[in-house]
Design goal:
The chain is mainly beta. The protein contains one helix and eight strands; from the N terminus they run E-E-E-E-E-E-E-H-E. Strand 3 (about 40-50) and strand 4 form a beta hairpin. The protein is globular and about 45 Å long. Pfam families: PBP.
Length: about 150
């Protein structure tokens, strides 16, 4: 994993600020990365909670991020197709866009934000879910990276 995925509001292993969780504004965090692998056509980001009681829970799928974009500001709108051409898949809460950490009370969960540099754009129909997204990644990943934050209630 050669891409350093970072946020200005939490570091690897730190607590994700409450405004980015279901206990507050539930807005996507700002993210940035430092690597543009050769032949990158687009980036994609997946956020998941592997500690969820029912198995891995998908919090965010955003893809077809242009290669000249090296950061996402906070509070990306929860729409399937964004005005700049980026797309968002359906999270496990049942809607397009970001759904923040929302673990059961008394538990601390890990949230993995994973970035993928791709040699293509993903040709997914609107409303794509995690399985469709992962299948589309297939052999198109040039490099990847991750940032893990924690949150508990």
């Amino acid at each position: 994993m050669g891409i350093n995925l970072m946020s200005d509001i939490f570091e690897e292993g730190d607590i994700i600020p409450i405004m980015h969780t279901c206990d507050d504004k539930n807005i996507s965090p700002p993210l940035r990365w430092d690597s543009l692998p050769e032949r990158t056509i687009s980036f994609a980001i997946l956020c998941e909670d592997p500690d969820a009681p029912m198995g891995t829970w998908t919090h965010w799928i955003i893809y077809n991020i242009p290669p000249n974009v090296m950061e996402l500001s906070a509070e990306i709108k929860n729409e399937e197709k964004l005005s700049n051409g980026m797309m968002q898949g359906i999270n496990d809460f049942g809607y397009a866009g970001y759904g923040g950490p929302c673990p059961p009370e008394g538990e601390e969960h890990r949230y993995f934000f994973r970035i993928y540099a791709l040699d293509t754009t993903l040709n997914l129909s609107q409303g794509a879910n995690r399985e469709e997204f992962l299948r589309a990644l297939n052999e198109n990943v040039l490099d990847e990276g991750q940032l893990m934050g924690i949150y508990g209630r």
